[in-house]
Write a structure and sequence with these properties.
It is a single chain. Helices cover 3% and strands 48% of the residues. It is mostly beta strands.
């Protein structure tokens, strides 16, 4: 007989809100990803007026950063007027760059077209794009 697998348990150590509508002006902040890069924490997330974009609620990507996990500031904000940015994913490339990967649901001129957008930064200064 095979031995029973050891039961794993998890313990919630702490829970805190790190970014809210007071920070962004947007009531919907979600679909986040977190990574450690150059001795700082980075979180990528979607900001929007509501969960599903549509023409009246298209989302943007925000990257926030913290040295200590307590105090957070914006490290970049990305808006593409043609559509709804969604699903922030952060990673570090083999060349040592911070990479933000996002999907966009395009509304103009092709309804419901989906594409990927990627931004890179060696110094984690993501800035903003129009």
């Amino acid at each position: 007989m095979a031995a029973s697998p050891k039961k794993l348990t998890a313990e919630l150590v702490s829970l805190q809100t790190i970014w809210t509508h007071e920070d962004s002006g947007q009531p919907h902040n979600a679909f986040n990803d977190m990574i450690r890069f150059q001795d700082r924490w980075y979180v990528g997330l979607r900001e929007a007026q509501k969960h599903h974009g549509g023409l009246e609620g298209m989302g943007s990507m925000r990257v926030i950063s913290s040295a200590d996990g307590e105090s957070w500031t914006s490290a970049g904000h990305f808006v593409l007027p043609a559509g709804d940015l969604r699903d922030a994913k952060l990673s570090i490339t083999p060349d040592g760059e911070l990479m933000l990967n996002s999907a966009i649901q395009v509304y103009h001129p092709y309804p419901d077209l989906h594409r990927n957008y990627v931004w890179f930064s060696k110094e984690a200064r993501l800035g903003a794009i129009p």
